[in-house]
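Supplementary Methods, section 5.1.

A reviewer requested that the exact input to the structure prediction be made available. We therefore reproduce it here, unchanged from the version used in the analyses.
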Amino acid sequence: MEQHLYEPEHEQFRDLCRQFLAREAVPFHEAWEKAGIVDRAVWLKAGAAGLLGMDVPEEYGGGGQHDFRYNAVLVEEIISAGTTGLGFGLHNDVVAPYLTELTTEDQRKRWLPGFCSGEVITAIAMSEPGAGSDLAGVRTSAVRDGDSYVLNGQKTFITNGEHADLVIVVAKTDPERGAHGLSLIAVERGTPGFGRGRRLEKVGLKANDTAELFFDDCRVPADNLIGSEHEGFYHLMANLPRERLGIAVVAVAAAEKILAVTLEYAKTREAFGRPIGSFQHNRFLLAEMDTEVTIARTFVNHCVREYNAGRLTVADAAKAKWWTTELQNRVADRCVQLHGGYGYMLEYPVTRAWLDSRVQTIYGGTPEIMKEIVGRTLGL
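The structure derived from this sequence is encoded token-by-token as follows.
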């Protein structure tokens, strides 16, 4: 139920995404999950198919489409195909605006063509062992030394961390100013002093590589500063609404898929001589979930339109993020229950969806942080 969000050109792009995933991802995803990482070649194939950098200007190899609906379509099809380990969403939805809006012309020429072709896989490194939602707690430091920054510190839970060729690192360049002394510095693969730790073993999203990153006297050219020095906090705050919108798009698409699978199961699985969906309690439960998912879809589509128009507020992005991700978890949990013992078997899509859902309320800002943001706009 897309609520008239998409135009014919978006549906054409959907067909492209669907065909690509069926050919290049679905047959291999189970093996990728067991390995804990996708085959790097799928990134190059995605780039060649036009699935990376849809809103990057054409002069740098991108699609030139300043329309988040294309991002949403790709994410929806990834969810529908069950290929949740692909890290394209982080690359397209989260990192892209930092590289298109905060970079110099030289930086754009250096990084964006590879970003769009899949040769340069990207990540953003905010979280640390002792700092998640609280950016003031970031301890990774970047000290200016001539024409370089020297980075020291550790990052963790970094999506695309193992594959990444370019990592935007959040580091303190002015420790006296707390969160207002942060800068964003791009660290490239092969930079001396830049190391990666173990591949982290997660509950869900198993094919999506997540890693620890280490910086030990890592000397990075000063030209790799993204945006303005000491202004990293403001750059992050400006781009977080887009990240949270992307997470909400995932949440709604996942809830829709889980519900559809469960509805079909409820029509065919029998207990006491009749389909389990015919029992009033189960029918009411499915009706409640269908209603809530419809409401979530309607609001998220509204937020996508507002983002495209340049009007999406920080508060609305926060509302969408916390409410849809909690709904996703609630729907996944209820649908596992409706599946009974089969809902606990990994071969069933509902079980994998349940595992993949859990992290959604954690990254991008917890519900508590989101509610704090919304509460402040109410004058509280």
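The beta strands are 122-125, 141-145, 148-159, 166-172, 182-188, 194-199, 210-221, 225-226, 270-271, 274-275. These observations are discussed further in the main text.
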